[in-house]
Sequence to fold (471 residues):
Amino acid sequence: MQFSLYNTLTRRAEPVAPMDGETFRFYCCGPTVYGPAHIGNFRTFVLQDTLRRLLDFLEVPTRHVRNVTDVDDKTIRQSQVEGVALSTFTDKWRDRFEVDCNALAVLRPHVTPSAVAHIPDQIRLIERLIEKGYAYKAEDGSVYYRIAAFSGYGKLSGLRAESRQANADNRLNSDDEYGKESWHDFALWKAWKPGDGENRWDSPWGPGRPGWHIECSAMSMRYLGESFDLHSGGVDLIFPHHENEIAQSEAATGRTFARHWFHIAHLQVDGAKMSKSLGNLYTLGDIVEWGYHPLDLRYVLISGHYRQTLNFSRQSLEAARSVLNRISGKLGPDATLDSGEANLSRLETDRFLPVVEALCHDLNTPQALGRLNEACRFERSESVSELDAIQRDLMRVLTLFGLEGIAQRTGEAVEVPPEIQTLAEERQVARSNRDWELADELRERLQELGWEVQDQPGGYTLRALSPLKAN
Fold:
């Protein structure tokens, strides 16, 4: 099954396959660890994870690298506000990010390099650019990239020269932007200033720290090679970050930096842009405090097409929880798979193939989720073996979305409300009368209310599916 994905660079959908015929190598711009990641950040990381999961499902070997930006203006400034060492400060937020990723079922990348740990790589790359005439040292010891020397600048974003100038004008607000030949040029190395405190590293140009853009070029090429398959991030990174990465990387190597560019659109909240001033910059912790499960959020984040802005609301969380409750009710009592069983070649039926096909067409998650819900409308089967095969395939396909954990997303033990107990008893009577249609209707009703009924010899048990519904 061929997988195609829109390429920001060429502005068309193109096949996704390893350029070396062996391993698909891709790089994702990771978090800047100066505070908790918000749900808008996680839309990008969850969809990148879905890409990774689809490749795994199609049995395409992958090498996934996602960096951590642990030195920049924000991390330095905030660590000094809190009066702690930069590494202590960034380690705390990096750990928080990893905890949130685990809760959202985001697979750990194969490599997670940090910017600080790879400063020598960045210095060597800057030296190559200076040697080739693409970079120059300013009087204060900073080093800048000479944009005028790279004829291909702008090919990713499509911005005209005057647009780049306007953007540059808007960003010339800090002292470290002076001393440049042109206001278009960007910093590769920032000379140390007293405001940086103890955060300084030696270089051939004097003490300082790397610029943001050079970090990702150095780390991606270190672990994926000078030319690799795909680079990803949010749409806000297209310019200037990714445009600058291309310029500095291709100037240094003379090779295509990344063949495919995968960008994810923004998340809005209740129709408005996320911002601190509006008080809608929500984190995963906020979602959990409201009583929802992290997988409810994951479902919302993949419910819209990655190239379209997605609107988030509490109503969307509620709808996601209802859908996941309904799907989890279709799983068997022992809904688990051994490692390595979740891939295309393991599917035992054709029921869920349309789901995979939708994902293979430009990672169309909303269409795929719609087809998943349709495929889950199977009735009681006369063949136990057929039902078992369908349930195993359902678990396999749920791994594509990172939703395989819905089978185990129980809360703490809670008291069963009387109305829930009554519905369960009515269903048990219907089963005794072999009224399967009514029994299934009552099961669906219980699921909508946040409860799963599990049939056992001589009776049943009830399980709370979500903390909010159970309380």
DSSP finds 16 helices and 15 strands in the chain.
